[in-house]
Amino acid sequence: MSRVVPTSGSKLLYFFFVCISGLFLYIDLNYKSFEGIKNFYQSFIISSKYLIKSATVEPIKLLYEITKDKSDLINENKKLKLELDKSYISNFIISNDSKFFVDEEAIKNFLKLNNIEEVFYLAKLQYFDTEMYLCCSKHRAFIQTYNSNNNRIGSPVINQDGIIGQIIYGNSLSEVLLLTDIDHVLPIVSGDHFCNARGSGKPETIICKYNNKLWQQKVVIGQNFYSSGMGGVYPKGILIGKVKEIREVEENFTEFEINLISNPLASNVVGVLESL
Questions:
Q1: Which of 50, 54, 100, 177 is 20 to 30 A from 74, alpha carbon to alpha carbon?
Q2: Angle at CA of residue 166, ends 163 and 172, nearest 5°
Q3: Class of residue 59 by CB neighbours under 10 A (exposed 0-12, middle 13-18, buried 19+)
Q4: Where would you find the membrane-spanning parts of this chain (predicted)?
């Protein structure tokens, strides 16, 4: 491969630029003539690095810090929520334990006032369809006994106010047919008046119907009715409720509604009596 031999003109040009460069170097070393330019260059380099870092590295670093802070905050919130949940659970247990003993004593007082000596078992109200109870004719509740897993089908169920129904199905988790269910029948009595009261399908209300020719004495508003003890389900002499409405439904027949003194929603702890 051949090389181009420098001409005399190119040599002179090269020599000229070398001399010029030497002259600039001499002037810079002796008179600092290019100090401003060098400072401007250094400043430009520093500024450029700062701007590039601010535009690229700093946002990434800031995003990382924000993500890290957010993660720490989430973990702290989870920790606080866990502590709060533990506190709620502790308070709930304390509150329900206290209410449990209060309800147990209330049931015992009810039995004592009504001279009922049957053994009873405490149970917890596990499920109650409030919408069905308020709107429809099927009134049921589901309870779970605390201390007994024996089959209690047919046993009366009470709370601190009075009778609320009877167990019709189940074992440890039992289905209770409430007094207000249209399929429930309760023999009740008041003086010489006796009837089989049926559930009305309305909250806290049962219905009786009687023949005026058989009952010489009329029923009056506010009259008390009690369990008769007939039928072999409920103890005798327990106050069921008071007459709140009377109406003539057919010739010689009168129908009246009784407002129950017991409310199945009054407590989530109930008593299950042993079958009579």
A1: 54
A2: 120
A3: exposed
A4: 12-29
Confirm if 272 and 155 have CB atoms less than 8 A apart: yes
User: What's the number of domains the chain is made of?
Assistant: 2
Give the span between the Cα atoms of 104 and 110, in whole angstroms: 10
- With H, G, I as helix, E, B as strand and everything else as coil, classify residue 13: helix
The per-residue pLDDT for range 3-36, each reduced to its tens digit, is: 555 666 666 777 776 777 777 666 665 666 566 6
Cα 272 vs. chain centroid, distance in angstroms?
27
User: Could you tell me the residue range of the domain that residue 137 belongs to?
Assistant: 120-276
Domain termination residue (choose one: 61, 84, 113): 113
Query: Does residue 214 contact residue 197 with C-beta atoms inside 8 Å?
Result: no
pLDDT digits (tens, 9 = 90+) for 149-158: 566 889 999 9
Handedness of CA 213, 215, 217, 221 (dihedral sign): negative
